[in-house]
Amino acid sequence: MAREVWIIGASQGLGLSVAEQYAGRGHRVVGMSRSMQPVDGLFDAWLQVDVTDAAAFDATIERLYAGGRTPGVIIYMAAMLYQGPLTEEPDALLRREIDTNYLGFVRLCQAVARHKPAGQNVRLVATASTLGYVGCPSLDSYSASKAALISFARSSRSELSMRQIAIQIVSPPHMIEGGADLIGPKPFSRRWAAPRFARSVDRGSSERLLGFSNRVMVGLSRLARARAQDIMNAIGTNALRRGARRLS
Length: 248
Known about the structure:
The protein is an alpha/beta fold. The chain has one domain (about 5-245): Rossmann fold. The chain is built from seven helices and nine strands; from the N terminus they run βαββαββαβαβαβααβ. The chain has helices at about 15-25, 55-65, 90-115, 140-160, 190-205, 210-225, 225-240; strands spanning about 5-10, 30-35, 45-50, 70-75, 80-85, 120-125, 165-170, 205-210, 245. The protein has a seven-stranded parallel β-sheet, with helices on both faces. Strands 5-9 form a two-stranded antiparallel sheet. β7 (about 165-170), α5 (about 190-205) and β8 (about 205-210) form a beta-alpha-beta unit. The protein starts with a strand and ends with a strand.
């Protein structure tokens, strides 16, 4: 029987591309997003849900398990990104960015722990970012939300493992389509990133960064934190000087 994969944040971008990878290999894919189903025939089931609505998100997970669903992997790819001066980010956007990028994954862990049948194994995948390891000006709140996500994913493993829930962290590379900025690490396409992301998930690695330049940056941050931050500061300062702005 084909394995079942749930992808939260599957309506576009890398989430949709990863869904295509799993569906193409014969897996049953359950997609979730605030948006309507983007592609007919790709998903075994589609649920429209907002991860920032705690009650609705919990009810969705409960309904799926109550219906007999048996996911082997649940990939959390919901994300929101604001790029621009931190002094100009509206409070509502700041809260939604933290809510989507970090708290949504916390809610997923809580909901799965509550509603998953006892004895059923599942892996939850937190989609992180290099910016969670080394923050970048113009992307301050996004960087902080991903840092919180990484810290939570690491610390929650011990408790959740007692409930047969494993936690993985996978960080995509700097992307050509919708990447954080015009300069910085070498950008990669979704076509390159999606199969490698899926393979990293399948291998069960506890923590994985995709893209050589990203791994170099994180490695440098461990050996020479100030130098790594100087590099990110230069990238972010350049973006601010150019007036780079984005909301996605």
